[in-house]
Model the fold of this input.
Amino acid sequence: MKNKILTAVSTIMLFVPWTILPLRAFDWALESPVAEIMIACYAAFMIFSGVFTIISYVKAKAQSNLMKVCLVVNSLYAVAGVVFLGMMINTHFM
Done:
């Protein structure tokens, strides 16, 4: 039962980063302070979802086929989140 819940949470986390696309259609989301905060929050969530999925896969032994897909995609999201935060920090201090 625990493995099914972890797999469901990881699956839901696959789709959350894509919710930034409808939000970016608004004018207020493209202004300077809001855009940086929103991108930083989404990047932090992407990193969290990658770490959560890796821990669920390794420690909790939730190793179904769907979890393997979630592991690959959320790990890519985590790497992208680290890159996005790194680029934001680099441009902020340069």
Q: What stands out?
A: Helices lie at 2-15, 20-23, 32-58, 65-93. Residues 15 and 74 are 10 Å apart (CA to CA).
